[in-house]
């Protein structure tokens, strides 16, 4: 990939990682429309590090509180001593499903699952469940009111993001609605829950690229992709938190169904 492709796809990654419309799907669709080669799961995972930095910066206060609570809980040997420590350790446990499933189905996710019919179908199916979850959600709970098992349920829905087209943001927000989180809290928790998974997958795929041998030019292009993903991702977070609180997810549901339908009709 050249530097222009890296920048364009980095922007696409940043815009779509936090919106419930699937960054993986768009990183597969955009190259198809522009007649570029599929960048592959490695490139997609590595430039996620840019969106990771955006989350770390935007939610630095929340992350500081959770990190401090985690350290104190270890010192006191009481992991669930406070709300913050309970949430922090629950996030760790809630990350296990996506890690285990991701490792077990690694080759399938990298190859067969990236077919356009899978992406188109996933966009539509998760859109329907996201809409139903929002309709039937009580939307009353705050993040600090979640118990351990409710967080694990959201963690299980996060594993759906391994299917291209499902969207990590969309699946975890759906999970948040299922356990009754308020709209903005569902989005915020989606970002926080995704931190370990994004970091782990990004570093894992970066290591695989390094071991396979990549040129200095590839390093430069990856860096450009990460930077552009960070910039577009940071501003997308702010926009989305405000938008979902006031308007919900209906617009994204409609968008997902339209894009999914177009893919299945014209690209499969």
Concise description?
With 268 residues, the chain is mainly α. The protein contains 12 helices and no strands. It is globular and about 55 Å long.
Could you characterize what this model shows?
This protein is 79% helix and 0% strand. It has 268 residues and is mostly helical. It has one domain (3-266). The model has no long low-confidence stretch (mean pLDDT 90).
Shape: globular
What is the gyration radius calculated from CA atoms? 18 Å
Helix-strand sequence: HHHHHHHHHHHH
Which band does the percent of strand residues land in? under 5%
Major sheet description: none
Helix count equals: 12
> Oligomeric state of the chains?
single chain
Tally of structural domains: 1
The count of β-strands is 0
Mean pLDDT: 90
What is the percent of helical residues? over 70%
- Secondary structure class reads mainly alpha
Tell me the span between the first and last alpha carbons. Answer: 25 Å
Low-confidence stretches: none
Describe the secondary structure blueprint for this structure.
Layout lengths: L2 H15 L5 H11 L6 H19 L1 H17 L6 H22 L1 H5 L5 H21 L11 H11 L9 H11 L4 H30 L3 H32 L2 H17 L2
Structure keywords:
268 residues, mainly alpha
């Amino acid at each position: 990939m050249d530097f222009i492709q890296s920048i364009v796809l980095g922007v696409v990654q940043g815009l779509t990682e936090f919106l419930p419309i699937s960054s993986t799907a768009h990183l597969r669709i955009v190259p198809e429309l522009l007649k570029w080669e599929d960048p592959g799961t490695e490139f997609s995972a590595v430039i996620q590090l840019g969106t990771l930095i955006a989350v770390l910066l935007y939610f630095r206060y929340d992350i500081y509180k959770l990190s401090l609570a985690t350290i104190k809980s270890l010192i006191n040997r009481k992991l669930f001593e406070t709300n913050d420590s309970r949430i922090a350790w629950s996030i760790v446990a809630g990350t296990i499903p996506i890690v285990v499933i991701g490792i077990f189905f690694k080759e399938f996710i990298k190859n067969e699952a990236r077919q356009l019919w899978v992406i188109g179908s996933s966009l539509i199916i998760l859109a329907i469940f996201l809409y139903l979850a929002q309709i039937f959600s009580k939307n009353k709970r705050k993040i600090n009111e979640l118990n351990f098992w409710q967080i694990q349920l959201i963690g299980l829905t996060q594993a759906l993001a391994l299917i291209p087209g499902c969207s990590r943001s969309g699946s975890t927000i759906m999970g948040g609605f299922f356990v009754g989180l308020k709209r903005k809290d569902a989005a915020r928790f989606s970002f926080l829950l995704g931190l370990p998974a994004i970091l782990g997958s990004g570093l894992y795929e970066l290591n695989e690229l390094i071991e396979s041998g990549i040129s200095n030019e590839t390093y430069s292009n990856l860096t450009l992709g990460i930077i552009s993903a960070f910039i577009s991702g940071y501003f997308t977070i702010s926009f989305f938190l405000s938008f979902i609180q006031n308007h919900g997810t209906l617009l994204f549901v409609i968008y997902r169904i339209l894009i999914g339908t177009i893919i299945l009709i014209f690209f499969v």
